[in-house]
Amino acid sequence: MLNFKKLVADNKGFVAFMLGMLLVRSAFADYYLVPSSSMYPTLLEGDRVICDRTAYDLKVPFTDVIVKHLADPKRGDIVTFSSPEDGVRLVKRLVAVPGDIVEMREERLLINGQAANYEELQAGAQQLTPQREYAGEQQVFQEKLGSLNHRIIVMPERQALRTFGPLKVPEGQYLMLGDNRDNSKDSRYIGLVKRELITGKIKRLMFSLDGDRYYMPRFERFGSAV
Q: 38 catalytic, yes or no?
């Protein structure tokens, strides 16, 4: 114990710096490694994303206790949150807000009775990355519905939940989906996400490393907006 106290005393500047970094990451800004392809093609495995933890709420550090609401999450936002299933930190796209009536019919979204528009893009032009454990066809669409305007990928030969609802999103909860629709464990499987479980908004990448190419840097993604 004495040795520990002496170690802390001898390195109190470093200890204070580390504690300050932990406080900043817990309350203001953080960064996360994207571990899977569930948000492909928007986010790639190996991307390191920057999370604005004050985009929506000011919270007590190291807790989910909200001190003050700063802004409301919006459809189309890419957010980080703690899974209501097991607490694991996830990154998904926020698709439906409180009061929305949302359903999906064979991959196609409807929100409040309005159907999303889907424009198929040429897969070859997207330079698609092969999906692990899936060697079938990948189709790329531009999904448009109000503030939702982004690319999604579907994998017709993969077993997935492609139809659900209609479901009315309760107050204080949100529906999340992955852009890689047939390879994402999202609200279709883990349920809706309470606001206090949302930990921040992703606006930009820090850097990206390609694990399939010996962790070579993807320089074109460094600092890019999402």
A: yes
What b/e sequence results for 10-38 when a residue is b if at least 16 CB atoms lie within 10 Å of its CB, and e otherwise?
eeeeeeeeeeeeeeeebbeebebebebbb
The active-site residue out of 38, 184, 187, 208 is 38
- C-alpha 81/C-alpha 71 separation (Å) is 16
pTM for the model stands at 0.89
What pLDDT shows up at residue 128?
A: 72
d(CA 94, CA 77): 5
What is the count of structural domains for the chain? Answer: 1
Assess if residue 22 is contained within a domain.
Answer: no
Catalytic residue among 37, 83, 92, 208: 92
Respond yes or no: is residue 187 known to be catalytic.
Answer: no
pLDDT confidence of residue 31: 85
Q: Could you tell me the CATH number of the domain that includes residue 172?
A: 2.10.109.10
Q: Domain of residue 145: give its range.
A: 29-221
**Burial of 52 from C-beta contacts in 10 A (0-12 / 13-18 / 19+):** middle
- What band does 13 get if pLDDT is binned at 50, 70 and 90? low
The pLDDT-based confidence of 23 (bands split at 50, 70, 90) is very low
